Amino acid sequence: MAQDLLITNATLVLDNALLPKATVLVRDGLIADISEGVSAAGEDFDGDYLIPGLVELHTDHLESHYSPRPGVRWNKTAAVQAHDAQIVTSGITTVFDCLRMGSNEDDGFEKGEMRAMADAIQAAEREDRLRAEHLLHLRCEVASENMLEHFADFDHDPHVRLVSLMDHSPGQRQFQTMDQYTLYYKTKKGLSDEAFARFVEQRLQASARYSSHHRDQLAAHCAERGITVASHDDATLDHVEEAKGHGVKLAEFPTSLEAAKASHSAGMSVLMGAPNVVRGSSHSGNIAAGDLAEHGVLDVLSSDYIPLSLLHAPFVLADTYEGISLPQALAMVTAIPARTVGLDDRGRIATGLRADLVRVRRDHGVPVVRAVWRKGKRVA
Q1: pTM (2 d.p.)
Q2: What is the reported pLDDT for 65?
Q3: In CATH, 54-345 is 3.20.20.140
């Protein structure tokens, strides 16, 4: 029988309010009681925030541990453990690790590598190596010829809970203008004009040939298996209508205010990058997350490539925008992402829910994680 956990003198971040000098009892991994007032017993938080464990839906961070340099592959188990350690000490207790489906001649990943990485994650989980709960988000490059072949490796994997439909072809979505595409694919890779022109033409042909068919196939498959579907980099109203037809519940990184508003109005959760909030702009030159926050159409944040940004960004939002309270901002990284993917047992401090909890101190600037519990067990 797990020992009870009693937390007291904490500032609780509830759904719509802050509750100072509060006490929380955790029993058998669940929140058993919440009360006002300071208890003589228990762990004294000295007024620190007690927030729900963060829920991360989209992080590419694992790849940087597995392939820390071009052409370098690290031990998969070691990479997973390093990733997990940084995730949980950033306050994230549920993480959807992104694995790419579909490869091109320039990305360096071979068929089977992503399946092997998923196997390493799940083996580490069985061996009690991990502190956060790890689920899978398959990033499906619909313009890739071999995407469905890669996706088939995950046909019966219950860890797959989220699938995103992505097309990084030039002239659309994330790369609506060729300036950013040229910088990303030509300048950084050192391609000649002739080689870059061939590269662009190949990508355009592949998109025209495969994208629509692959979107339809994936949407049907996910509907059958009960997997949440995300769109990616929607830029136009036509993109949003297409997403609605595919049963999309999560609109990731819309690149225009028009698309974000339409997605939000359609009942999709609009996701933007927490680094975008912290930096004040998009690294790819698209719309700033703050613009969506000002218009009330920002629902979910993702750490993307900087794990600690998921905790930092809500405080930035609450500091910056008069209409966004700290509970509202923190819901973007807890309750709303959990609800979007059907994880209704977590993401809020309420009796009967999982005791995924984080102690946070923030006097000014970047918040500090002081302790993390998952299912009532101290993990950091």
Answers
A1: 0.91
A2: 95
A3: yes
